[in-house]
Design a protein that fits this description.
Elements: E1 40-44, E2 47-53, H1 55-58, E3 63-69, E4 74-80, E5 84-91, E6 93-98, E7 101-106, E8 110-113, E9 119-122, E10 129-136, H2 141-148, H3 154-163, E11 166-168
Antiparallel strand pairs: 1-2, 2-3, 3-10, 4-9, 4-11, 5-8, 5-10, 6-7, 6-9
Length: about 170
């Protein structure tokens, strides 16, 4: 049986790690700095996304994306089956709906949207808004990259949602 790599364990005199050490299951995480405006940047409907930390860089633990949203844009009500979403508003004002609650969030505010809970956001003001989005675990970055290339093809967007286990939520008719 393989023995895990030494993680700072102190052994009694004469003891050592077995010769059959297991490989570290996590990639080497390296310190890094991404300057403002840096990172992979893609244009999406209603603004821009900048990938500051991706799953490849975090061992799949999380991804951090800066979003820059134009006035009067947003994302419709949807559910992630796999990821939690966290927003930290940097500038402007967002109107969020999370789990049936609607509220405004401005600069410095934190919003959490757990997986399997419907959420949406909109910028209802005349000025752009910016936020950091963290998704845990990572992986949803792929959705945004692929979605940005699909244009207005509704069937392709539905298929992409199925692939990434995110689905639109229809509001009940009143």
């Amino acid at each position: 049986m393989a023995v895990p790599k030494d993680r700072g364990t102190i052994y009694a005199p004469g003891c050592r790690m077995a010769d059959t050490e297991m490989a570290d299951p996590l990639p080497a995480l390296r310190p890094r700095v991404i300057p403002h405006g840096g990172g992979e940047r893609i244009q999406v409907r209603g603004g821009w996304l900048s990938f500051l930390a991706t799953g490849e860089q975090t061992g799949g633990a999380y991804a951090v994306i800066e979003t820059d949203n134009d006035p009067h844009t947003g994302v419709g009500l949807h559910v992630h089956e796999r990821e939690d979403e966290t927003w930290f508003v940097l500038e402007g004002e967002y109107t969020f709906e999370v789990g049936g609650q609607t509220f405004c969030a401005g600069s410095g505010d934190y919003v959490f949207g757990p997986r399997n809970v419907p959420n949406s956001y909109a910028i209802l003001t005349e000025v752009a808004a910016r936020a950091l989005i963290m998704v845990t675990p990572a992986g949803f970055e792929g959705f945004w990259r692929e979605s940005a290339r699909l244009g207005e093809d509704a069937a392709a967007h539905r298929a992409l949602g199925e692939k990434y286990r995110v689905r639109p939520v229809m509001r009940p008719q009143t």
